[in-house]
Write a structure and sequence with these properties.
By secondary structure, the chain is mainly α. The protein has four helices and no strands. Helix 1 runs antiparallel to helix 4. The two termini are 20 Å apart.
């Protein structure tokens, strides 16, 4: 069993994070009007401060890196490839889905909105981690001494 190649975990994770953040940005633009209207109905405002944006960007990259790390960790057991990467997608997406359940518990957003976030989250996680897993390669084992 090879050791985890941390350089490739980071590289693949950053690529996955870029994909996740692109999906998040596009979906944020698409749903901005509805999200703003919901918040205004509750006397809240959409905070687009630099700190909030950095937090969301950072979370996208964190999800990507953790996802590729999970792929690297389970790869020796399940083998390299898309089926194993999809197993990592499911694990990461379950955390994403947990946050959706949290949002649903406070009743702020519509079921349709939460459903769309769930679908987008699954798509962004799948595409991002498939690419991140594609980048990941095990470290070469050092030659055996004779």
């Amino acid at each position: 069993m090879g050791r985890i190649n941390w350089k490739r975990v980071i590289l693949g994770g950053l690529l996955a994070g870029v994909v996740i953040n692109i999906f998040e940005a596009v979906s944020g633009i698409i749903y901005m009007e509805e999200m703003t209207a919901v918040l205004e109905r509750h006397s809240l405002s959409m905070s687009a401060s630099g700190g909030a944006m950095l937090l969301y960007l950072g979370l996208g990259f964190l999800f990507g890196i953790v996802g590729v790390w999970i792929y690297a960790a389970i790869r020796p057991r399940f083998g390299p490839g898309p089926k194993t990467a999809f197993r990592a997608v499911i694990v990461v997406w379950l955390f994403y889905f947990g946050s959706i359940l949290g949002w649903s518990s406070i009743g702020l957003y519509s079921t349709w909105m939460l459903g769309m976030w769930t679908v987008v989250g699954f798509l962004e996680t799948t595409v991002g981690l498939m690419l991140g897993a594609w980048v990941y390669k095990e470290e070469e084992a050092p030659p055996a001494s004779s």
